[in-house]
Amino acid sequence: MRTNTKYIDIYTQIKYDIESGKYPINEKLPQGRLLAEQFNVSELTITKAINLLVQEGYIVRRRGSGSFVKNFKHSSITKFSPLTGSTALHNGEVTSTIIGFSTEAPTQYIADKLNVDKESLVYKIIRMRTIKNVPSIIEYTWMPLEIIPGLTTKELETSIYRYIHKSLNLTIKSAHIKVAGVRPSILEKAYLKLNDTDFLMQTKQIGYLDDGRIFEFSIASHIPSEFDFETVLIANEHD
């Protein structure tokens, strides 16, 4: 296993074991100590691998009982497409205004979301997304430099996802998204021309590559008129 990505290799192996039926749905996984002995790593490394599986919906933690395999055979299809980006979703009718672009050490909250150390460097990106000439989204994005190197304002003004796919030859596989209604911040009121009584639809998204690495954590605040989120649950034919 590669020294700095052992947890990715373990995540990949356990995910394969779940999908192949070695660990059936609803079965309890071995304790972290036993998995650490099996893979010859620390329990912290096992925890990082399990965290990825929890975030991707393969495992659920039950307080006082341990980690159990979820029914991952139920998948979701969403009309709000995290895997292609806003530009593709709106047929290219999206422009980006860069509000902030910097490289910095992450806060503990961001480090936890990206599954990186606080000593590592991340991009912090703030953009306004304009759809059909209407200021519609304020987007806050954090990406690890180690995974997404060479990002410039050119990509920020066009499509970061296209850069990841075409220039870095990386494959975006999945995303974990939470949606909530929120009041606008001072910055959002200024750029989206809102007031204190308005509200926004906010998504928090963790993006994964096909090798299990987290490449992005983003918070996007959408005006309701340009927000369309639809999820369809599809049961496996054998269920």
Describe the structure.
Keywords: DNA-binding, Repressor, Transcription, Transcription regulation. This is UTRA domain-containing protein. It comes from Pseudolactococcus raffinolactis. InterPro entries: Bact_HTH_transcr_reg, Chorismate_lyase_/UTRA_dom_sf, Tscrpt_reg_HTH_GntR, UTRA, WH-like_DNA-bd_sf, WH_DNA-bd_sf. Pfam families: GntR (PF00392), UTRA (PF07702). This protein is an alpha+beta fold and 239 residues long. It folds into two domains: 3-69, Winged helix-like DNA-binding domain superfamily/Winged helix DNA-binding domain (Arc Repressor Mutant, subunit A, Orthogonal Bundle); 77-234, Chorismate lyase (3-Layer(aba) Sandwich), CATH 3.40.1410.10. It is built from eight helices and ten strands. The strands form three sheets. Strands 4-5-6-9-8-7 form a six-stranded antiparallel sheet. A hairpin with a 2-residue loop joins strand 5 (122-131) and strand 6 (134-144). Helix 1 packs across helix 3 and helix 2 (32-39) packs across helix 3 (43-55). The longest helix has 14 residues, at 6-19. Residues 75-84 and 232-239 have low confidence and may be disordered.
Which secondary structure elements does this structure contain, and how are they paired or packed?
Elements lengths: L5 H14 L12 H8 L3 H13 L3 E4 L3 E4 L5 E4 L6 H5 L4 E11 L3 H7 L7 E10 L2 E11 L8 H5 L2 H8 L4 E11 L3 H7 L7 E10 L4 E9 L8 E4 L5
Antiparallel strand pairs: 1-2, 3-10, 4-5, 5-6, 6-9, 7-8, 8-9
